[in-house]
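Fig. S4 source data, part A: sequence.
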Amino acid sequence: MTSLIWIGFIAFVAAMVALDLGVFHRKAHEVRLGEALVWTAVWVVLALAFNLLVYFLYEESWLGWTTELSHRLTGRQAALEFLTGYVLEKSLSIDNIFIIAMIFAYFRVPREQQHRLLVWGVLGAVVLRGVMIASGALLIERFEWIVYIFGALLIGSAAKRLPE
């Protein structure tokens, strides 16, 4: 049952992206502040609605959700954990906005193309991140010793960041 919920969630996200690109932003245009604020409000409301769904999945065991879990969270705990993660991710994404603005300015991306480019860039990053996580997990499962190589890569990367 858990896999069906995940499939439904991924299908919903894919449908929202298709709706965004295929209906609401089919024609390239410059996104103004008012439109950006409205869309931000729409996505925040959707996240809060999802938070309610998380609450009821755990509190009322909708769709048999909690029967498959090894431990039981209350609806309040689960909703609070989701909301905390959402707010944290939202706040951490602020620095990405500045980086993206600098990249768009450097490459002189026309304002009417920025939304489409941003959406495809984010989708590409999500897909590539998933591929890398799955590949790493498979490698670690098959070759336990590779953990030491990954650790050495992380330490080497950190050492390069140290001031001279």
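Fig. S4 source data, part B ends here. The mean pLDDT is 88.
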